[in-house]
Design brief:
heterotrimer; A alpha/beta (411); B mainly alpha (309); C mainly alpha (295); A: 411 residues; alpha/beta; D-Maltodextrin-Binding Protein, domain 2; ten-stranded mixed β-sheet; 16 helices; 14% strand; globular; C: 295 residues; mainly alpha; MetI-like fold; two-stranded antiparallel sheet; 3% strand
Chain lengths: 411, 309, 295
Amino acid sequence: MNTGRPTDPTALAFARGALTRRDLLRRAGVAGGVLAGSGLLAACGSGGSSSGSSAGGTAAAAPSVGTTPADMAPSWTFSNWPLYIDTEGKTKHPSLDQFDKAFTTTTKYLEDIEDNESFFGQVKAQLEAGQDIKRDIVVLTDWMAGKWILLGYAEKLDKSALPNVTANQLPAWQGRPIDKGDEYLVPWQSGMTGIGYNPKLTGGKLTSVKDLWNPEFKGKVTLLTEMRDTLGLVMLSMGIDPANCTVDDAQAAVDEIRPQVESGQVRRFTGNDYAGDLAKGNVVACMAWSGDIVQLQFDNPDLEFLIPDDGAMLWTDNMLIPKNAANPQNAHAWMNFYYDPKIAAEVEAWVNYICPIKGAKEALIAKDPEIADNPLIFPSDADLANLHVFKLLTPQEDLEFNKLFQDLTGA
Amino acid sequence: MAYAEATRTEAADRAAPAKPPSQFWRKVRYQLLNVFAGLVLLYLFVPISVIILFSFNDPAGKFNLTWHKFSTDAWAHPFGVPSLQDAVVLSLKIAFLSTLVATLLGTLVALALARYSFRGRGATNFAIFTPMATPEIVMGSSLLTLFIATSGWPIGVDLGFWTILIAHIMFNISYVVVTVKARVYGFDRRLEEAAMDLYANSYTTFRRITLPLIMPGIGAAAALAFALSIDDFIVTQFNRGAEVTFPLFIYGAARNGVPVQVNVIGSIIFLVAVGGMLLNLMIQNSRAKRDARASAGAVRRAQASEAAA
Amino acid sequence: MGWLRKHAAYPLLTPGMTWLLIFFFVPMGFMFVKSLQTVTVDATFHQHYTLTWEWSNYTEAIRTYHSQFIRSFLYAGIATVAAFLIAYPLAYVIAFRAGRWKNLLLLLVIAPFFTNYLIRTLAWGTLLADDSIVTRALDAIGFLTVTDALGWTSEHRLLATPFAVVAAITYNYLAFMILPLYVSLEKIDKRLLEASLDLYANRVRAFLRVTLPLSLPGVFAGTLLTFIPATGDYVNAELLGSPQTKMIGNIVQSKFLVINDYPTASALSFTLMAIMLVLISIYARILGTEEVTTT
């Protein structure tokens, strides 16, 4: 659900010529149509609830925006998660630079989304009052994006301004329950939540979420603050399908975790900040996001990512235009620009998550066939069968699930 | 008998060591306190040294947590991170403005409290004291409740720059009042009376006598307000909407690796503050010396003229 | 003009006090009202608040979070005592033994607190990391074994333990303890001490019977200025703590800013405020310095 790139040794090393592009691509890669056949993403957020329908949101027609360079506003703001775009040095973003040049505009790129809930809390009051939150694109995980659509905080997209998206969006990402008509969201990246660990420190390979409860790792394990990731993984380890879970299932998962928290087995609940601890060795095993581990491997080559035998969680982060954004034309132009396979490949080479754009995979593989071996970006069919999505919760369920989880994390 | 005792003690004295043990231990016990104080002073500076040290670090990844190698890159480009620059600028703006307004409002209140007796004096004192006695989280959260509740009203303010500013002025007023009040209390009113005897009206008296004399207090209050504002985190976090001040930037960056530039800017603020205080100290010292010399000179001249007369 | 002369205080007071009224006292009222509301969520995730005089918000909140309340007072209390023990000797030395170095020493004492609060706390995170020199040294001398047994640390590490949180709180609020202590110690007439020594008191007795009582206003101010913000603090617990060290501040912050459960959050905030006011008045009465709000 959440993604954040805490380290960029890659970019640093790359920028200094220490890494060749080949090395980069060996570790990185793109998984595109791999997921298409699984129909998994179409099921993203499906479940027993019907609230993913197009109830809510405004009934107004989508504005039509021109996206030629002449139409562009001189500057616009793109809010994203940290390290979720190609980065050279610490602040240059080649894809954005190319966009700026092609469309004679200036992109203000903010990496200020650290956590879905926290970010929402910051801008909620303004959105409710119908104000421009001074961001033209925000990137939100599917469940939060769905919330924004229902709340009426998302602008409808002008499809005519997004020919690349229409042409290149892989079928797996189309027509999802949170956005049936693909009218509000444009997928940015997909990823997996599993276990990140250091086999040297854990004394061997791990196979399951239950391995996190090994007393030898006491105080060196962290879980995620993202409720759907943590409870989802634990449910899977208990044989419950998160796509069809009930409040009782959530309670059961919480009860499973609680003794581990109280005994100090779990050091703390983290957002992206597990990365530093993991790389340093303060934490030996934790719930982690796939792309992070690939990038952390530059800091610490021993790290590995595990898709547990019982299953891992799959999620998508989406670009969304907030209501009353000042520069929707720039936003549309960028969305369209990003869905060019060449550009997407550039971003993908760095971000190392799962790319929703057709043709990006081919573009990268053509340069480095070896990346096909990277299981994190090209999960095998067996891995795929093991990926699950979390149920799309109704507001009432959302409240109850969150209450349970907050009791656990002490929030 | 006395003679025998006397010779016995003399003998004992000659046999005794040069320094009685109790004296030595007393000295040790005395110094113990100083040593402890010195240790505390050292302890105070431990994190500061870490901060300054790590501003010269070139971290391997994005986390500036382990020493990797020495580099002055961050010092060469303190604003290399664009959003950091915006945050620092915003913090400075708000600190400057809130200091201005709070010092003005607070000084007026302090003058009223220190000079006049009026009905409601006790209540005013209580009202000034309460914000200082309230946990920041309570102040911040209640202010947020106000802004949210009034967001639909015509006079409602949107969460952002103005709400942060309002909050900062609010908590600064009390500190300004207390600081200026102390200075006004110590102020010798006979100077004002003397001025008025010399046909100055109240306005001139205030401008030429009172104000200059309480100016150090106002200056101290302004410095305090500025420091409080630029460092404030809790109250700001509640009322910021989506704006990012310097402390908020650090908080957000802490999860994903605080850039080295943050250490640089922190060090700069520290050095500027210490430098300013040292300067102030030196100015005060030289002023005191100058005054002492002047009065000593005056005394000598008076004595000389007396002697001559 | 005569009225103005007689009542000159009022125009001076008005701007400042109005500001405080609107932006400190009125919000308290709003928060109180909010704490009595109920929030419901509709099918589109919109929240609606209705005033239902829901006193149960308070009872529920206290019932659910009483351990965090107690923990906050405990941590703040320990930190205050520790700060006092550390600060008093230092303030004493500067006030009584520093002579002409007084001001310079004072400057050195205040200087560290001119760095940003968060950077300081993060620096402690670096210092107390699992593999840092400090942690390893403490482990080597067996300190961590002792604290592990006491439950202050765990697994021979310092981060994400109560020890780290309390230590950081102590450090961060040390200036608030040192300065008032220094000010009141400095004011003491040294001749009183000399007099007591002349009257055959040894140095310890002189301290206990003369210096300490005379420095009480400073003790009072210092402990208040340390304890109050420390209780509501959540930054240290968040950056250096674990789920077991969550303080009431963390709960209020999360409920306000992340979960947006304003009624419960307001109730918690208001309760905290009320408890603080009660504690302060009791403390003032005990120390006999009721005139803290006047002067």
